[in-house]
Amino acid sequence: MSVTKAESRKRIHYRIRKKIRGTAARPRLSVYRSNKFIYCQCIDDISGRTLAQASSKETAVANTGNKSDQSRAVGKLLAERAAAAKITTVVFDRGGYLYHGRVKSLAEGAREGGLQF
Prior knowledge:
The chain has helices at 5-19, 59-62, 67-84, 102-112; strands spanning 28-33, 38-44, 49-55, 91-93. Helix 3 (67-84) runs parallel beside helix 4. The chain has a single domain, classed as Nucleotidyltransferase, domain 5, CATH 3.30.420.100. 41% of the residues lie in helices and 20% in strands. The protein is α+β, with helices and mostly antiparallel strands. The chain has a four-stranded mixed β-sheet with strand order 3-2-1-4.
């Protein structure tokens, strides 16, 4: 029985989520990557609330170069919104994706914006 790429990613994501827990002081920076867009949010897992979010669908980011450039811009935008919500440190949840390409660009953009992982 063969396992699809999506099923494999889900398995990896479950394995990551067993170890990572976001709190109000140090929320989880969750990443979702579709073929066209990238989404990220800071989540407090204890209360089940999203504290800040950003995506490449937003007009401020939508036309800023290729998808990697957009991901970096999304990371910076999230860092600004997190700073407004008084969040300085986060736990990075790569969502089962490899830390490479757009996911890495988003993380670097968030670090440039002032978030600490």
